[in-house]
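so the lab meeting is tmrw and i was supposed to have these ready like two days ago... anyway. pasting both below. for each one the top line is the aa sequence and the line under it is the structure tokens. i havent really looked at them closely yet so no promises
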Amino acid sequence: MECGVSAGYTNGTTTPTGILAHDVRTERSPAKAGLHVNFSDKSEVKERREKFLTAKYGNHQMSLIRKRLAVEMWLYEELKKLYTTPQTVGDVNDEVEVDIDELLDMDNDEERRRHLQTLLIGAKKSQHDVKKFINDLLDKAKTL
């Protein structure tokens, strides 16, 4: 039984002959007629698409980060209270920057206390409130 399709080669060349060979070389199926592969330069792709690395921390490290963030947010809110009065709610020009790392690097609580008192000299609240804030901050800094 013969099929009628020939895939033989003529005269030692590598060009196939027959019905199938002709169809494959010259005609594309309608489904594949619109397909086109376009290779682009890799540097162009890198410029277009930047990837960012997101660090993943362990549970213990995330706990320390949350604790530090809670202390910093508390510090920010308390400083706002110390430097605003009912008359100056919308007009706060005094800026105080308390660096927690700098406090932790100091040798003892007395040195930290003196440093904070000099930083907070312009506070709008009473000295009692300032001393309470300093004591609370030193307590919270010990937990970090």
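ok protien two:
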Amino acid sequence: MIENFSQELFDCELATSFEGFYTFQLRYSNIDHVISTQHNFLQEPVRKETEDLLYILIWTNKWHPTVDLEEGQDVFINNKCPYTNCFITANKYYQNENIEKFDAIVFNVSTMQNWRSSNTPKERSPKQKYVFHGMESSYTYPICPIHMDSFFNLTWTYKLDSDIPHPQFQVTDLKGNVVAPKTNVKWDTTKYNITNYEKHLTRKRKAMVWIVDKCNTLNNRLEYAIKLQSIFRYHFLDFDIFGCGMFECPENICYRLIKQDYYFYFVPEDSEGTDYVTKDVIKAYENYAVPIVLGNADYKRFLPEASYINIKTTSNEALVELVKYLINNPPVYQGFHSWRKTYVIKEVTLEKGLCDLCVKLNEWTGISVKRKFRNWWYKESLRDRCIPGGAETFAEVFSYVNETRH
């Protein structure tokens, strides 16, 4: 029986990463810009007199619903980006009210109210780069309007095949080299003695916990978690859920409890997007719990092998038996922490993504468009998500109905 569980343990799907920066051959040559004059009701911005600055406009007034981004070059200079000649602003009037003078315009999927043509720039320079930025799942934010095909030049998202890939976390080796996420990763599976970490592991007494703050999701993950909780309890295993009407506790205490009490941490994604793996998994790793993941990503591209359990590879009943086996066999459970001797897992910041964007704008000289952008972003049927959807033209409606169009 132990052999069967051990085999199932190492049959669980595990993970990979991507290259953070592209290598480019030519540098983008920018036209000179003159100092702009603001409207009387706008404050005159502080601006550095640098002829080769590349100006980036955030199309919506706010970068992110919860993030304010300071205008200027400082974000590139302070973070020691490879290029610091980028200037970012959300002020559409910065270039004498001439939107065409910006070198790049970034459209953030989480702050765009709608994608109708009336909500996008009226004029466009052939040299401008239109950049689609999305860190929220495509399943939560599908793009419906047909004019979004052939609209963007660059994609900057969590997807690994983006022009500027920006995962929410990355795995590095002990020298700081990025190992994952990548489309192909060869993980070091050497098993190490983890004596240094045993103090965090031997005092654990409960099976699993989940700290949740997003209660209503398209994939009904909370409903599934409650069902799984009842199965755990039937087998005399604790599965505690904090938030969404369950137990409540201050965040710092909750995380301390993970480290102290729980063997496993539940990590169900709030959406089913390809390559969509959020930084919630870090809550498990930082608190010496093994993540039990549930999502639509190929986790072998993201997470160290033998460091997590993927629910999709087994049934609920088999998962319960596996959890019981690991709790009762500490040396096998501790093997899930062996990766700590080889890798470091940390969050990828917005600033890192901005550095990558500035590199791309400096080194990419081509002008191309994403002709089938809607299908690249959202792989499922647009008809199911976009009708009625307030389409502006018959052609737009037809593009949802006719499955061959996307």
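from a quick look at the 2nd one: DSSP finds twelve helices and 13 strands in the chain. The CA atoms of residues 193 and 287 lie 19 Å apart. will dig more after coffe
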